[in-house]
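Sharing a chain and its predicted structure for anyone who wants a worked example. Both blocks are below, sequence first, tokens second.
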Amino acid sequence: MDNYEAYLAGFRQEQSALIIEMEQYAVEHHVPIMDRAGMDLLISLLRIHKPAQILEIGSAIGYSAIRIAEALTDSSIVTIERDHERYEKAVDYIRRSGWEDQITIIEADALQTEEPDIFARSYDALFIDAAKGQYQAFFQKYAPTVTSSGVIYCDNMFMHGMVLLEDEEVPRRKRTMIRNLKEFTRWIMTHPDYEASLLPVGDGLLIAVKK
């Protein structure tokens, strides 16, 4: 797989200085952002889908929102982040990116908030990239905001390969999260209201189309 990644990397376009800075910041400060392969696939799918309104759960430092805004210049993005330090960093990066009119970032716990700015509209696409053990809770809370034929994307479905391990092989502190992630995968892959696919790109990208 590393050979394939190296081959594909040779075809990727060079990113802006700001995006490179954000990627370096994420590495240095252990901020989880979407890897290049997964991000490229998500952007390609969104370009095909062309959603006008996008909701993101888990802004982190604003990396995904900015990459999406750059690729879909006519789309509006609402993104939610609960960590104050990451929220402040995202606000700064979004301002510096020049996409602050297109991206609305809200500081809130996505599982607790009833913020009108989030729920007063509907979305053509929902991107979930927050606490992995809470994916089903995020999905159930925010899926009603997604339009018919809208698409829900979930990143990190493989959790760096841990979903392939037996329970006793998973580090004890991560077992509940991995159990929940596996249960969510089983739940959505057989859900009668969605057409779901799990793609082995990046760290695993789930795509669920709302019927």
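Comments welcome. The mean pLDDT is 94.
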